Amino acid sequence: MYETIILGAGPAGVAAGVYAARKKMKALLITENFGGQSVVSVEIHNWIGTKAISGVDLAKNLEEHLRSQESIEIRAGERIAKVEKTGDNFKVITNFGVYETKTVIVTSGARRRKLNVSGEKELAGKGVAYCATCDAPLFRGKAVAVVGSGNAGLEAVMDLLPYAKEIYILSKGETINGDPVTLEKIKRAENFKAVIFNASIKEIFGDNFVSGLKYCDLKSNEEKILPVQGVFVEIGSVPNSEPLSDLVKINERGEIVIDHKTGATSAPGIFAAGDIVDSAYKQSNIAAGDAIKAALSAYSYLQWK
Q1: Residues 102, 3: contact at Cβ < 8 Å?
Q2: In angstroms, rounded to a whole number, what is the distance separating the alpha carbons of residues 248 and 82?
Q3: What is the DSSP letter of 101?
Q4: Which residues contact 149 (CB under 8 A, 6 or more apart)?
Q5: N or C: which end of the chain has fewer CB within 10 A?
């Protein structure tokens, strides 16, 4: 019986793991891989304490830091299938086994919605990006397409305006669904070129780096090419909350609802942090800090249990 099981090993999961280990909790961390969504970033400039680091190197650093702790067990390469309540405790079921614990810290993050078109996977981190806040500075002086016309898409454009030479928004529909005030600010920028409506992305292409995308005009049924060096996919994300859907309160976006003072969920003994929760900002530094809060709350919970 573990005192806590941590689900996930991005910045949030590793932060929770380090603090659980420092508190000498009998802890287990389960993850498919290390690094979370940051792994796809070519270069990260806003990870506090580091001027610049690749997503791959950040994942290595996180893993090394966690493995240097004495009081935590790690099971990498395992996928969470279900979390169940058993009396006052919990059972975590993976594709490899079943583990029992007194508390659970959920940091399994979210998965970005993908376009699922040719070239997207191959060019991820080579011009295809999913976080403008993280990667906008890498596109200084380049032409960039933002796919998505909701608030996420508009915020991505705002992040890109100080850097990109040309910016295009591609919308599958005929309207912009994001904040109209933000849209007006964008339209006044010299480097914002156009909103392309009725655009269904068919392909992202390039040899070693993105050089353009192909889209179909849904009105004319004509295929067109847009030469760009960057494609930001901003069509939302899906929290990995399905294994806990029967236990904790989840909002309409699939995020776990928490008490932001403690990281506690609606189920006593389950805590959560990172991109899987109903936080306003999805950033690695925030996720790590909130996960520390969740780990300390889990420790305090056990003292009173």
Answers
A1: yes
A2: 12
A3: E
A4: 169, 170, 171, 172, 173, 175, 176, 177, 178, 195
A5: N
Annotated domain spans of the chain: 2-112+237-304, 128-233
Specify the CATH number of the domain 2-112+237-304.
3.50.50.60
Rg (CA), the chain: 21
Residue 224: strand pairing partners: 215
Q: Are 37 and 10 in contact (CB under 8 A)?
A: yes
Give CA–CA dist 238/226, Å, rounded.
28
Please report, in angstroms and rounded to a whole number, the separation of the first and last CA atoms in the chain. Answer: 15
What is the 3 state secondary structure string of 162-211?
A: CCCCEEEEECCCCCCCCCHHHHHHHHCCCCEEEEECCEEEEEEECCCCCC
Global pTM reads 0.77
> If DSSP states are collapsed to H, E and C, what string results for 29-79?
EEECCCCHHHHHCCCECCCCCCCCECHHHHHHHHHHHHHCCCCEEEEECCC
CA distance 12 to 21: 14
Query: What is the DSSP-derived secondary structure letter of residue 244?
Result: G
Residues paired with residue 212 on neighbouring β-strands, in sequence order: 205
Tell me the fold of 128-233: FAD/NAD(P)-binding domain (3.50.50)
Per-residue pLDDT in tens (0 to 9) along the chain, 305 residues: 999 999 999 999 999 999 999 999 999 999 999 998 777 676 788 899 999 898 889 999 999 999 999 889 999 999 999 999 999 999 999 999 999 999 999 999 998 889 999 999 999 999 999 988 889 999 999 999 999 998 889 989 999 999 999 999 999 999 998 889 999 999 999 999 999 999 999 999 999 999 999 999 999 999 999 999 999 999 988 999 999 999 999 999 999 999 999 999 999 999 999 999 999 888 899 999 999 999 999 999 999 87
| Residue 281 CB neighbours (<10 A) | 9
Asked whether the domain spanning 128-233 has the same topology as the one spanning 2-112+237-304, the reply is yes
